[in-house]
Amino acid sequence: MDNDDTETYILLLLADSNLPTGSFVASSGLESYMKHGFASSAPSIDVAIVDFVRDSLASYARSSLPFVSDAHRAVMDYALCKGATDNVVPHAHSTLSTLAKLDELYQTMVLNHVARRASMTQGVAMLTLYSKGFSQSASLSVFSTPEARDHEARMRELIDHLKLKIRREETYGHLPICWGALTAALRISIERSRYLHLFLHARSLLSASVRLNELGPYGAQQVLLHAVRPLVEAEVARCQNLRTGFLDSLECFDDVTLGPANTWPLGEILAGRHDLQHSRIFNS
C-alpha cells in the first residue's frame, strides 16, 4: 500500500461517525439559532440549515484553520527531527510550548464560554482518540516497520505529554490545535487535514439538525451531498494561506489579511445564549 492509499485509509477511519469525539454533544450554535426563530424567514427548513452551515463554515474556517495549519506544521517539524536523542528532547519541549501558545491564542479568539467549552471537550476527545484508537498496541507492533514504530513511539510520547499539560490545566486543549496535532501524528497532509476538519464541522451541524428533528437522515444526507461540498471547498481555498504568525517571521506577517478572525458576530451571540434556553438537547 503506497502513501496515498495509506492516507486515504486513515481519512476513512477519521470520517467514521461512530468515533467517540464528543461532537454529538455540540450543536455549534444551531440549536440556539433554531430556538431564536432565525430559520422562520427561509423558504424551507433545508434552505435555512444550508444558510446556517454556510455562515458557520465561513466563520469557523477563518478562525480555526490558521490554528490547524500551525499546529500541524509544528508537530510535523518535530516528526521530521532526526538524530541524537539530546536534539529530540529539546525539540519536543519546543513543540509543546508552541502548541500551548497556539492554545492560548485560540482561547482569546473564541468570544463565548459555550464555544470554548465545546472546543476543549472535543479537543481532549481527539487526543484520547489517538492514544486509545490510533496508537499501536505492543501486540500489533509486529505489523509495522522499525521506522513506523519509531515514529509511533515519538508521536505517542508527544501526545501523552500534551494530554498531561491539559490535565494539569497548563493549557486548554482546543479542538483546532488538537486536530492539527492528531493529523500530523497520523501523517495526514496539511491540505487534507484542513479539508476534513471543515467537512466534519459541516457534518456535525447536519447531525445536530437530525437530532433536533429539523431534518430527517435522508434530507441531511442530501444537503451533505449537494450543498455542503462546494461550501467546504470554497472555504478551504479561501483560508489555505492563513496562519497565526507564531511560526512565521513577524516582520513579513500581516495579521489583518493572513491572521485568524471571527467573522460572524450573530453566530457568537447565538452560541453564547445557548445556556439561557429553557430546555436544551445539546450541551453547547
From TrEMBL:
Keywords recorded for this protein, A-Z: Chaperone, Nickel insertion
Source organism, top-level taxon: Eukaryota
Gene3D superfamilies (UniProt xref): Urease accessory protein UreF (1.10.4190.10)
GO molecular function, one term: nickel cation binding
TM ranges: none
One Pfam family named in its UniProt record: UreF
Family according to the record: Belongs to the UreF family.
Protein known as: Urease accessory protein UreF
